[in-house]
Amino acid sequence: MALAPSVSHAAEVFPMEKILFEAQGLTKSFPGVKALKGVDFQLGPGSVHALVGENGAGKSTLIKILSGVYQPDQGSLKLDGTPLTLESPRAARNHGILTIHQELSLAQNLSVAENVFLGVPKPKRRLGMIDWAELYERTQAIMHGLGLDIDPKQPIHRLKIGTQQLVEIAKGFVVEPRILILDEPTAALSVHETEFLFNIINNIKAKGFGVIYISHRMEEIFEIADVATVLRDGSEIGTAPLSELTPDIIAHMMTGKDTSMVDRATFRDGVARGDEVLRVENLYAAGVNDVSFSLHRGEILGFAGLMGAGRSEIAQTIYGAQAKHAGEIYLKGRPVAVSSPQAALANGIGYTTEVRGWQLSSSLQSCPRCLMPRIGSC
Ligand SMILES: Nc1ncnc2c1ncn2[C@@H]1O[C@H](COP(=O)(O)OP(=O)(O)O)[C@@H](O)[C@H]1O
Ligand SMILES: [Mg+2]
């Protein structure tokens, strides 16, 4: 598939006088790998710039240079047309460049307000005592300004992961950033929380500031971004306004392969479809509304959607971990009553929970019989 003729390189998308933040010819090597091979990048004022590319393309390395975490081997940066060196993340922050990394850096046992003011001077009363009333009030004002309703006094560990992610973002707003860099920010957000984030992004944009947005969710990029730059193997493949791109063009630029729908259809048809093993008809449960599908031998069936869309709830209902309100589940054509995880296991249905890693090891324990996170008694 040919690239759209409008896809150009970074240097050609913005007129010179409209560049807020600019990188030229960035190279960066790690032992045995050249992560960036002469990348140009330009952020325009009042725009949301998506940075896309497959795993290992160099996205995180690029933003780590733009946020002062790494120094480039070669290349230069300019802010408002003036050359600058960012020797540390603090230096970047002092220039108004705020980066939200995917990993949370919140102190779980401190309150929202204490986290928001972590590492920055807290309001003080006479004799150097912390002015708690002022601290809570200023945190409340930051939350209010971002359209968030989060109690400043709540300890972090009491909040859902998505809300914690929003606190992580709010934390950067003690001093409002001119450039906001977000690395895969919606991975832990529900549909509702993503709307809050998009409101925050649109507010920054309306003030004439810039946002760099890393995501592999195509629909999100088309919803929120104005411009996209595609990286592949450490090189900038192209930069173009989203209005001139399609998901297929972006996918092609990311992989160098033709991934058009026609090709995918050919691939699917070429795979022999085995017998039906699982069929779900008109399933209703908490968070699940009238879901039907069938799964055949040899197939991997993917469920796509944002957090809160009901993907986990479908799986948990089929696994008997949450009650089915209506609908039928058939295994090899036979209706089955999966009323508990034990019944599901007895029928050969297994489940790997999304709650793995730190959450399981710290606050939650999985039940040895049904493998579900155990909160209280199983
Ligand atoms: N600190 C590091 N040490 C060694 N190799 C690294 C380091 N950071 C990134 N890389 C390598 O550089 C390449 C680009 O990585 P990265 O910027 O993380 O890509 P992306 O964020 O697009 O997935 C990859 O091959 C990765 O393995
Ligand atoms: Mg990355």
Structural summary, described in words:
This protein has 378 residues and is α/β, with parallel strands linked by helices. It has 2 domains: 252 residues, Rossmann fold (3-Layer(aba) Sandwich); 99 residues, P-loop containing nucleotide triphosphate hydrolases (Rossmann fold), CATH 3.40.50.300. Helix content is 28%, strand content 25%. The chain has 12 helices and 16 strands. The strands form 4 sheets. It has a 6-stranded mixed sheet with strand order 6-7-8-3-9-10, sandwiched between helices. The chain has a 4-stranded antiparallel sheet with strand order 2-1-4-5, covered by helices on one side. Bound molecules: adenosine-5'-diphosphate (ADP) and magnesium ion (MG).
Task: Please give the structural blueprint.
Layout: E1 21-30, E2 33-43, E3 47-52, H1 59-66, E4 74-79, E5 82-84, H2 89-94, E6 97-100, H3 112-116, H4 132-145, H5 161-171, E7 179-183, H6 191-206, E8 210-214, H7 218-224, E9 227-232, E10 235-241, H8 247-255, H9 261-270, E11 276-285, E12 288-296, H10 311-318, E13 324-331, E14 334-335, H11 341-346, H12 357-361, E15 365-366, E16 373-374
Parallel strand pairs: 3-8, 3-9, 6-7, 7-8
Antiparallel strand pairs: 1-2, 1-4, 4-5, 9-10, 11-12, 11-13, 13-14, 15-16
User: What structural class should be given to the helix and strand makeup?
Assistant: alpha/beta
* Shape call: globular
Q: Give the N-to-C terminal Cα separation.
A: 54 Å
What is the H level of CATH, i.e. the homologous superfamily of the largest domain? P-loop containing nucleotide triphosphate hydrolases
Number of helices: 12
Q: Classify the helix fraction into a percent range.
A: 25-40%
What is the ordering of alpha helices and beta strands? EEEHEEHEHHHEHEHEEHHEEHEEHHEE
Adjacency order of strands in the biggest sheet: 6-7-8-3-9-10
User: How much is the radius of gyration in Å?
Assistant: 24 Å
- The name of the CATH architecture of the largest domain is 3-Layer(aba) Sandwich
